[in-house]
Amino acid sequence: MAQLASRPQSLSFIRRYRWQELSLLIIPFLILLLEMTQLLLANQDPNSSLNIRNLPLLDGLTPIFGLIAALIATNIVLSIFFRKADQVLLPLVGLLSGLGVLMMTRLGPDIPRPLGPINNMGSRQLIWVLVGLVICIGTMFLLRNTTWLSRYKYTWILFCFAVLLPSLIKGVLTFKSANSTPTRDILNLGPLSLQPSEFLKIGLVIFFAGYLNDNRDMLAQGYFRLGGLKLPPLKQLGPLVLM
């Protein structure tokens, strides 16, 4: 009886699974595997002939395999707890994140390797992607109601600009100085590091999501024409143009 009772539940889960999202993830998976394989082949001796012995080892594909496993795990979590979430965003995030991992793997031999236990640039980028996915899932569990984010959208964007302000001031002063040398402002968090501008990206996402949600009706209606375009009032259009 228990087996018969569990069978409808499993069938219901299969029907409700986010198959569209999983099928869209196949596209970035294939692209990233192909590009990483080409990258590893390009780094080999150009005088050697291509055969089974000199094909890329699985160790070289570890960053991409790690990203694929993380995206599949995220897809499973979303299918269990957040079935109604958008099914296009995760494949897009996977493709863009994978390209970032590829670029860091490609640039790894050409730039000084960072100090720390993780000296592979592609693996370091993969760790940041994993951290981002964990924070994303954690945010979805903690913030079931996101209206308060929309309520303080201007506060978030001002905070992000405030975090970025010291870097802007330092850049201007360095540019005006006689002996100016290129500098990078980086926040070090243990073996990981990030630029302050990363916080601005998060703030922009929160701001635009809240602003477009609050003003969707005003933005959808055209109040004056500019050529063939119908534009909303300047009060609603101004913040978008400014950002």
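Second entry:
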Amino acid sequence: MASRQSLGSYLKAAFTNRWNLLAFIGAGVAGAISPIPDVVLPLVIAAEMLFLGVVATNPRFHRAIDAAQGAADAAAGAETMRTRFDQLYRGLDPKLRRQFEELRTRCFVLADLAGKDPEAAALGIDHVAKTQLVGVNKLLWVYLKLLHTRMTLERFFASINTDELDRVEREALRRLGELPKDAVDPLSDKKRKSVEDTLATVRARRENIQRARENHDFVTLELERIGAKLSGLAELAVNRQDPGLLTHDVDDVARSVEATEEAISELQVYTGLTAADFEAPEILSAPQQQQRVRA
């Protein structure tokens, strides 16, 4: 439902309506060249103010403006999501891009069934395919984000020099061992704290790397799970199975990715994905039903 606009927005919409502008300007010009412009022009302005007051407070006019603004906002939002999809898709390595394309191609059968196949419509799959395209789009969007997440994690792993990390740790332990254990002078105490801080940093880095590897394993498992589920849904649609089963499976998988979305959000430091990337763009779209032309 479109949100209500302010009174100022309704007044602006009423005033900038092309028919109102044409009438107002025409009446103003006619009044200006009339024998009594000092009488006609105030009447034109008064009539315009009355028109704006009546129209800008009319509920039907409000609904029309709200609907138009809602459609404009929806179009802008869809374009923003499409741009974000292109950024993530084109940012994938060629191998991962092919992997996504293979899965998306298998899912196109659901879009094809939505409005093109009379047999599917007779079995009820046509309606199911249309209503569940949103769920399939969601799954494909999560799949794309998982591919992006795995790619960024693997780039992070490639940037890690474990030999250097081991060297820093060994050197810090050596220096710590060389410091007098019972020293009480301020300089020795500062040295000890500095070395201990270095060791704490190394431990924190190792823990961070380990968490990243565990997240990478989880992302890989989720990619396999969602890919298998989407392939199964496409096969289910092609084989004209029970539409209710298809609906249940799509809903079930779509709900199951909530935890996956949370895991992706926790990896924002690696992926750059934000809360704005939660909404799924229209990766698949149902073709328009072909209209029959009567002779």
